[in-house]
Design goal:
136 residues, alpha/beta, 4-stranded parallel beta sheet, 46% helix, globular
Length: 136
């Protein structure tokens, strides 16, 4: 159980349904207790494929509890959109960070780790460690 605000997690995908499904999976696998604030920011405002700076900014604002926000992305332009928002300086909450991690495995690691009360650096490290997960 966390002793303070939890790190927020934003999952940025080119597809709304993909972002929502990964958020649901990660939250479900985090188990009971205090679950991290997680938001999906997938697709465009009209439901199409792509990325939306507005949806990402709104999602980050929804999950911000003052402990930082970890943003995980799926593909190239999602990364570029988050980098552009971070460069703007005022579009994302203070402490927002792009996390270089595999989308699904990194999301699960990030949500489980922040749900346990870890700080942003530990959440980022856990998500990045997902690159080393072996499946065979």
């Amino acid at each position: 159980m966390a002793n303070g605000p939890l790190v927020g997690v934003v999952l940025v995908s080119h597809s709304g349904p993909v972002a929502e499904a990964v958020a649901a999976l990660a939250t479900g696998l985090a188990g009971g207790g205090d679950t991290a604030p997680v938001a999906a920011a997938g697709g465009t405002e009209d439901g199409g494929l792509g990325t939306s700076a507005e949806l990402i900014s709104a999602a980050a604002a929804r999950v911000d509890r003052g402990a930082g926000v970890a943003l995980l992305t799926d593909l190239g332009s999602a990364v570029l959109t988050v980098k552009a928002l971070l460069a703007e300086g005022d579009e994302l909450p203070d402490g927002a960070r792009l996390v270089d991690a595999p989308f699904l495995e990194g999301a699960v690691a990030a949500v489980v780790t922040t749900s346990a009360g870890a700080d942003l650096a530990a959440v980022e490290a856990a998500a990045e460690e997902a690159y080393t997960y072996r499946k065979a």
